[in-house]
Amino acid sequence: MTIKKTLTLAAAAATIGFAGAATADSHGGNMSKDQALVILTSDSLQTQGMAMILSNAMQQQGTDLHILLCDAAGDLAVQGFASAEAINTPPSNPAGQVKPEGILGMLMEKGAGVDVCAIYLPNSEYGETDLREGVGVAAPGPMAQMMRDPAIPVYTF
Fold first, then answer.
1. What is the pTM of this model?
2. Fewer Cβ in 10 A, N or C end of the chain?
């Protein structure tokens, strides 16, 4: 086999292997095949905890997560916020006790996008500089577009 033919075959194989793996989305980022939008508004510790535990399970199964925190749940995005109590995890989870903000940080480290609602900061005592590093402020247009996309399931807590 000639070098030219080998290089052509290698280029073809690379093209086939990467074709369709990711495409650009309307936000300028990469759109994976499996995405989910989790909207969390509850101030309930158990609801926040379960939303984070389920989000973690989805992420472990390959889902590209985006999390929108509104109302009292927006506090999870504030730098230094600490829940008053920890929650006990189910027997199948060896973590023992966790806090929702701890799981949120872990999700972010593994690539989850996190935003607070556009009206969270103007209606709280916090400013944008109070948010954890990497947390954004959702713009209504792009968020509505994500919510309307039939390929992106929306889960609310």
1. 0.78
2. N
Q: How would you write the pLDDT of the chain (157 residues) with one tens digit per residue? A: 443 333 333 333 332 232 333 333 444 444 447 999 999 999 999 999 999 999 999 999 999 999 999 999 999 999 999 999 999 887 877 778 899 999 999 999 999 999 999 999 999 999 999 999 999 999 999 999 999 999 999 999 9
Hey, where are the domains in the chain?
24-156
Residue ranges of alpha helices (H) inside the chain are 3-18, 45-60, 100-109, 140-148
- Taking alpha carbons only, the member of 124, 131, 126 closest to residue 108 is 131
Q: Are 101 and 82 in contact (CB under 8 A)?
A: yes
